[in-house]
Amino acid sequence: MTDQSADFGSGASWERLKQRAELLRCVRAFFDQRGFLEVETPLLSHDSVVDLHLDPLSVRLFDDPRMPEEGALLWLQTSPEFGMKRLLADGATAIYQITRAFRGGERGPRHNPEFTMVEWYRVGDGLQAGMQLLDELAQATLVRGPAERISYAEAFQRTVGIDPHQTAVEELADVAQQLGFHPSPAWDAQDRDAWLDWLLVSQVEPTLGHGRPTIVFDYPASQAALAKVRHELVPVAERFELYVDSVELANGYHELTDPQALQIRTQQANAARRAEGKFSLPNESRLLSAMRGGFPACSGCALGFDRLVMVASGASDLSEVMAFTIERA
Amino acid sequence: MAVYKTSDFRKGLKVQIDGEPYLMFEMNFVKPGKGNALYKCRLRNLIRNTILDRTYKGGDSLESADVEEIDVQFLYRQVDTFVFMDSSTYEQYELSADQVGDAWRYLKENLKCSMVLFNGNPITMTPPNHVEMKIEFCDPGAKGDTATNVTKPVKVETGAEFQAPIFINMGDVIKIDTRTGEYVERVRS
Q1: Which of B4, B6, B36, B56 to mutate to test the interface with A (most CBs of A within 10 A)?
Q2: Between chains, do A184 and B52 touch, taking CB under 8 Å as contact?
Q3: Which residues of B touch A193 (CB under 8 A)?
Q4: Distance from B27 to chain A by nearest Cα, in Å?
Q5: Do B30 and B41 touch, CB atoms closer than 8 A?
């Protein structure tokens, strides 16, 4: 037997692949029972979500195979967000989709550049209703009981003992370094969110979702992405995340409905991308035009399906639950 | 000099930091869904054997280190300098007593060792796991006593002292484990 022929099989066991199929049925049943319409939107689009930390892969849509370098540049979706929101602007009320998403530069035990995402939206839902639906989905698929709900600030207070919204950036740096963080020389010490991300990943996340799932909500406004920002003493983003066994499984928003705010955030994200030497993404999109015509108040959420299978089956690496990860795709 | 970007980071990479070679022996990619991609690395300094923890952000880079392992044999010692010869090219390399460290205890003439070169310069050497050495001096062996748990100091041909069972005699050849410095067995009496 040659080396090549020995290497064709899946890294995942049949037992896990069967569990994956069962969970897929379970997710569909969950949304079907609640009257959600299953939809399909294009993987390949002229538009892209614009986020400093999401790097979409591109595809050249050529007409002439003799000149494959010529044609429009299309983006493989990093999530089905734009397509689904256009359907909401067009009258959809409760929709879900199970699809593939692609993200460049993401590879690790919990990251694969191509992965399966479950995404859903329901018109009329706010932050609380959005979290409630996510909690019910977690209960239906994982059977670990209702989730603990804790704000981003409380989660930081509990593990790191600081207020993530108001602590000065110098103090965040001190705290991180006291906790054993050794940044590279190129680290930007003024980048608040980078310090918060390190504290989140190394200190807070390890404590989340043990015994029962945890839903974290009210993120720093600087990390709002496409969530509504609520203006209180400190502004917070109406964003929520589900954690199980320290693994981040889902990210939801009480959705931004203001096209002007979307436009500003898109431009800011593109400026930040350029500042980091990354390629720019389109500032204009069909979603922006759709939102200018009116967009319903709603909540939406995206769940990493492969990670769900991972925690449900007690696996610790995506290669144990995906038929073929990128190296062997 | 090649440059490794964070996307090239993986276990086993040899990189250069502040002019010294490091082996990346642990690498973890972590990233909050809407946050920075972080590469948590543990690196071992190949000269001093110390551990360095560093977290890199997507887009950072490290210079590659030109690190090579070669087979050498020990030729001779000249005061504080140890001279080795590349077994295939016959090129000679020198290490200081500091660089050799405790391994001097095993360096008898013609001993085959492995040596690490950084940018073509020797930085460390490692003796084989087991070395056979002749006893130069010890108290006379206790006849008939074959116990190995009662030991006495013995001086071997390199001038180093080890602990060996009391039945060992001058002129015997014993095997020493270089990783622990402990007596393994008598090879010849």
Answers
A1: B36
A2: no
A3: 35-36
A4: 9
A5: no
**B30 contacts A201? CB cut-off 8 A:** yes
Residue B108: burial class (beta carbons within 10 Å; 0-12, 13-18, 19+): middle
Q: Chain A closest CA to B58's CA: distance in Å? A: 8
**Beta-carbon contacts of residue B76 (< 8 Å; ≥ 6 apart):** B83, B109
Q: For residue A3, is pLDDT > 70? A: no
Interchain proximity B33–A107, CB inside 8 Å = no
Measured CA to CA in angstroms, residue A302 lies from A93, A228, A247, A248, A297 at distances of: 17, 16, 14, 11, 17
Question: Strands A148-151 and A214-220, how do they pair?
Answer: parallel
HSE-up of residue A164 (Cα within 13 Å, Cβ side): 29
Closest CA to A105 of A61, A53, A67: A53
What's the predicted TM-score (pTM) here? 0.81
Q: Which amino acid type is present at position B7?
A: S
A320/chain B closest Cα distance in angstroms: 17
Segments of chain B scoring below 50 in pLDDT: none
- The predicted-structure confidence for B6-34, as pLDDT tens digits, reads as follows 989 999 999 999 899 999 999 989 898 88
SS3 A146: coil
Contacts with A109 from chain B: Cβ below 8 Å: 28-29
Tens digit of each residue's pLDDT (9 = 90 or more) over A98-154: 999 999 989 989 999 999 999 999 999 999 999 999 999 999 999 999 999 999 999
pLDDT score, position A7? 79
